[in-house]
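**Folding the chain**
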Amino acid sequence: MSEGSTVLKLLAFPISIFTICLGVNTILGGHITPGGGFQGGAMIAGGVILSLFVYGYDRIPVDFSHNFVSAVESFGALAYIGLGLVGLIFAGSFLYNIGFDAYNLVPNLVQTIFHYPDVTNAGIIPYLNIVVGLKVMVGLSAIAIAFYQFKSFEEEGDEE
């Protein structure tokens, strides 16, 4: 791959960190503001992709190895399914909002686990935003990493 400019390399990492922090803020505030898991995950992936294309896969400041991507993707999927099954078990419907029990179907002991003392209590919605954000972040970043590696592989083949 071609070498980038020094100015670009100096500015890309702080801009990536700012974009990642903005994405985390969007995920964590998604139950009371516009945005949420998908939008925040896409912002975080944008920061990772910026670092990827400026520094290259070998020197990227964020470690996105295959094991890391696989672990985060699996955790996001299992947590999403787990939250859905808790609603199915205790209320009879998949992804029932057991933290904000509108129909009084969930036992108080289970409801207190996902209910937090806040005026903006949204039950399991913030947790769903977090796991969806993880899945989107890892999915979009993995696609960009795959394209980057395909491009690197193609350039190596052209040099021979």
